[in-house]
Amino acid sequence: MEKVIPIGEGFAITSQLDPEDLRAAAAAGFRSVISNRPDDEEPGQPSAAEIEQAAAAAGLAFAHLPVSSRDIALEDARAMRGALDRLPGPILAYCRTGARSQAMHTAATSLNSQAKRYDVVIVGGGSAGIACAASILKRRPDISLAIIEPSETHYYQPGWTLVGAGVFQPEATRRPMASVIPKGAEWLRQEALALHPDEQAVELADGSRIAYRGLVVAAGIKLDWNAIPGLAGTLGEHGVTSNYRYDLAPYTRDLVQTLRNGVALFTQPPMPIKCAGAPQKAMYLSCHAWEREDCLGAIDVEFHNAGAALFGVADYVPALMRYIERYGIDLRLGSTLIEVDGPGRRAVFRQGAGERSQTCERRFDMLHAVPPQVAPDFIANSALADATGFVAVDPATLAHPRWPNVFALGDVAGTSNAKTAAAARKQAPVVAVNLLAVLDSTLPWATYDGYGSCPLTVERGRIVLAEFGYGGKLLPSFPSWLLDGRRPTRRAWFLKDRLLPPIYWRGMLKGREWLAAPGRRDDEQ
């Protein structure tokens, strides 16, 4: 190994390394090596792969960031900045003479001086992002943490079902975003434009970047209203509504109160969707209201569900089917809404799949529509996304498989659990403790079991409380003698109506982890 030249704290440069030099580098106290030299610049030059193999044998981390000149491009500087932040120090970088490594360090350092840096950056100020921020700050109040969220209002979305039923007032489900940002967090009021995990940076809508040591992605899910031709343009009129929007849930209530005969259609798109039970919750509560007004017999109710089953966990289906039969609902499985003509009061469905599928046109007086749902565009287009467009994570630790300092939770996480606020409540402490462990250079230890909860409001005053985890395993929070979630109970309604809103606002968003303490991997063995 040729002469080693210290450049800055924890960083030094040297000329071309040979594989046998790596043990000497480790003995000198270095913990990482960066190669800034392209392969095959000259005959006999060791390849980056050879150096990486020797580095691993010596217990050193390695990164290959080749550049051809000392005129460093912006993207190369950002990649070097990410490596300097990610790799354990001290770091030894090399090229042919060391000059390009020094130029890369200078460019990366200059870049870092222009970008504000936080210990933790959270993308998204919904239930998952705020709860996770609160859990992190509860454990480490002095950490620097930023929340990227453009909205000025925070919504309690589980309450919109009850707004549509006339139980809650819409104003009870919203609060100023400033009131829920945890103490100690900095609120960045703009959109995230792009994620750059190699550089440990987030690009904001104004073109600026912020740097992080740890990233939490809690960007939610995109309701793709435009995916169904005609739907977006007729929402809120012509009898077309949806409890999936704050401004439309009151229209659902008004439609139910005025409809006394005709056809009412309720739809559910293919998975994944936010709160898979919400489409039928709206239907059951509407039917119960019509039943109490003694006009249900004059209304033809159809449930067009794109899935193959009424509900994804079989244990809850018998109780739900009894309400399907009680209300006289025409259950149509494998039926997907594909077009809406609001002024003409006409909906088109695709029934079945493949070559045997066919279209069916239905007239309606009321249509409760739920749109397809996908990952936000900037997530789907990022390196963090899996094949579905959502953030790839380990289903237990919620850490990204490629970038261990990146985590995701809530609707944007590519996990198989139900996408509900209850899932985010359980995930938030898991991400909090695991992210802090990674920042402390230790391994994540907390695990998420896939818990999700769906309070299925089958009538006003009774709920089937579905609680389950990965693989449909039942995960009840209460003993069956107190509350059996497989049958409709008034206790579950009291929980939904009276207890869950204050638990959300005063507990979950404040980092209070009632019935949500993270479990360890060892607990499962």
Automatic annotation (TrEMBL):
Designated name of the protein: Bifunctional protein tyrosine phosphatase family protein/NAD(P)/FAD-dependent oxidoreductase
Keyword Transit peptide found: yes
Source superkingdom: Bacteria
InterPro entries, per database record: BLH_phosphatase-like, FAD/NAD-bd_sf, FAD/NAD-binding_dom, Prot-tyrosine_phosphatase-like, Sulphide_quinone_reductase
NCBIfam families to which the protein is assigned, alphabetical: TIGR01244 family sulfur transferase
Entry's Gene Ontology BP terms: sulfide oxidation, using sulfide:quinone oxidoreductase
All copies of domain FAD/NAD(P)-binding, residue ranges: 118-234
Residue intervals of the Beta-lactamase hydrolase-like protein phosphatase-like domain: 8-106
Cofactor: FAD
A GO term, aspect molecular function: sulfide:quinone oxidoreductase activity
